[in-house]
């Protein structure tokens, strides 16, 4: 199996990468934005060739996929002569509920299950289904593999994933913690032992996927035992625009004071809170740092809040696992914001964390950022969800 096409379909976007599995290199990549709206655009890059921008109305995902195929096979800037060269397609799917604890070869039964979980993933699952169906139509006969964001977290014990609600809320309605960013957490959990030259079974790792959306997972012996996101990606850390953990009783109070419906309140908590809401400046951490340095107290408070909550989760997960060997930072913020990494680890010396500030400085580099005598290793991992999806697709198709 040589070429695998990785698809990440959003409600109005479609990201893709063509990966050459002989050396796991990216042959081509791109994104279609504003699907179904005015100003649709495709940005495509084949490795070694100039970037191409195609402005064309794309009313649905099928039209977008057809433009992707046209770009991929273009004689001038394409990556392959025909789509027959592609061996399989791997799809990111947000919610697989309890049904999927591993990637799955797509068939009618799998699609029906993904549809069942639309209620739990209303923004993402419908788009993920469209991406799969579009690829099946455009490339008939090619295997499609669904890789679920929730799958990695299915090893959590019941006392970790259950909420303290009447048990029939779980039995009848499957209300529980599922966790997300699973593909990234799985990649980090596999990469850390490779870098350290140790077996996964011998490590207790806290994986910190920090970006506009952020989550943390406790990984003991290669298996997830807890994670910060819950029934939806809203639970857990304060994020770019998400509130994270909040007193449930605050929600009806918010509804009353802001005169919002339940649906409007969920949108409010997902889109207008977090770093954006607290700072009043931006959800982008670069903007927050700039504002903080200019004397903006709210931006300073937002950054402190973020790092404080990360630190609390690190401490709680170390307790849950009975210790920790590695704290791994990844994601757009985790990989690039050395101030945030330092502040998240500040005060954890009692756990045996000794940060090397000089090593910590820098962005976009995989490295260990603690001193050689630090009992707990902190490190930066450059997560690669697309490669993880490609690897899992190749594994499933190989079976």
UniProtKB/TrEMBL annotation:
Site positions for Transition state stabilizer: 181, 242
Active site location: 149
Root EC class: transferase
CC cofactor: Mg(2+); Mn(2+)
GO cellular component annotations of the record: cytoplasm
Pathway named in the protein's UniProt entry: Metabolic intermediate biosynthesis; acetyl-CoA biosynthesis; acetyl-CoA from acetate: step 1/2
Pfam families per UniProt: Acetate_kinase
Listed EC numbers: 2.7.2.1
Residues reported to bind substrate: 92
Positions contributing to ATP binding: 15, 209-213, 284-286, 332-336
Residues at which Mg(2+) binds: 8, 385
Cell compartment(s), UniProt: Cytoplasm
Molecular function GO terms recorded: acetate kinase activity; ATP binding; magnesium ion binding
UniProt keyword annotations, A-Z: ATP-binding, Cytoplasm, Kinase, Magnesium, Metal-binding, Nucleotide-binding, Transferase
Cofactor note: Mg(2+). Can also accept Mn(2+).
Catalytic reaction annotation: acetate + ATP = acetyl phosphate + ADP
GO-annotated biological processes: acetate metabolic process; acetyl-CoA biosynthetic process
Family listed: Belongs to the acetokinase family.
Role, per record: Catalyzes the formation of acetyl phosphate from acetate and ATP. Can also catalyze the reverse reaction.
Subunit note: Homodimer.
Name the record gives this protein: Acetate kinase
Native organism: Guopingia tenuis
Lineage, opening ranks: Bacteria, Bacillati, Bacillota, Clostridia, Christensenellales
């Amino acid at each position: 199996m040589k070429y695998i096409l990785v698809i990440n379909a959003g409600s109005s976007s479609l990201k893709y990468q063509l990966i050459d599995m002989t050396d796991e290199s990216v042959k081509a990549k791109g994104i279609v934005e504003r699907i179904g709206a005015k100003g649709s655009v495709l940005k495509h890059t084949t490795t070694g060739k100039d970037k191409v921008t195609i402005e064309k109305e794309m009313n649905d995902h099928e039209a977008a996929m057809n433009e992707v195929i046209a770009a991929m096979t273009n004689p001038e800037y394409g990556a392959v002569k025909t789509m027959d060269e592609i061996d399989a397609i791997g799809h990111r799917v947000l919610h697989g509920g309890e049904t999927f604890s591993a990637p799955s070869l797509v068939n009618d039964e799998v699609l029906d299950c993904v549809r069942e979980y639309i209620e739990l993933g209303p923004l993402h699952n419908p788009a993920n289904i469209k991406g799969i169906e579009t690829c099946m139509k455009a490339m008939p006969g090619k295997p499609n593999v669904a890789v679920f964001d929730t799958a990695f977290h299915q090893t959590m014990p019941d006392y970790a994933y259950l909420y303290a609600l009447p048990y029939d809320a779980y039995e009848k309605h499957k209300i529980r913690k599922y966790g997300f960013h699973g593909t990234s957490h799985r990649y980090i959990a596999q990469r850390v032992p490779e870098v350290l030259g140790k077996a996964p079974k011998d490590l207790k790792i806290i994986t910190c996927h920090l970006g506009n959306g952020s989550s943390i997972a406790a990984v003991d012996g290669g298996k997830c035992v807890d994670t910060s996101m819950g029934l939806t990606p809203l639970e857990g850390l304060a994020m770019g625009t998400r509130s994270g953990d909040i007193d449930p009783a605050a929600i009806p109070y918010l509804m009353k004071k802001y005169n919002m419906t339940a649906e409007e309140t969920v949108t409010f908590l997902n889109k207008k809170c977090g770093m954006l809401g607290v700072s009043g400046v931006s959800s982008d951490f670069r903007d927050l740092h700039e504002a903080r340095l200019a004397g903006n107290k709210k931006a300073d408070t937002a950054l402190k809040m973020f790092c404080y909550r990360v630190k609390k989760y690190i401490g709680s997960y170390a307790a849950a696992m009975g210790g920790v060997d590695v704290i791994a930072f990844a994601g757009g913020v985790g990989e690039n914001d050395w101030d945030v990494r330092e502040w998240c680890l500040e005060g954890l010396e009692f756990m045996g964390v000794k940060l090397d500030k000089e090593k910590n400085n820098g962005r976009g580099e995989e490295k260990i950022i603690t001193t050689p005598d630090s009992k707990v290793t902190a490190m930066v991992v450059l997560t690669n969800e697309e490669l993880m999806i490609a690897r899992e697709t190749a594994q499933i198709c190989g079976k």
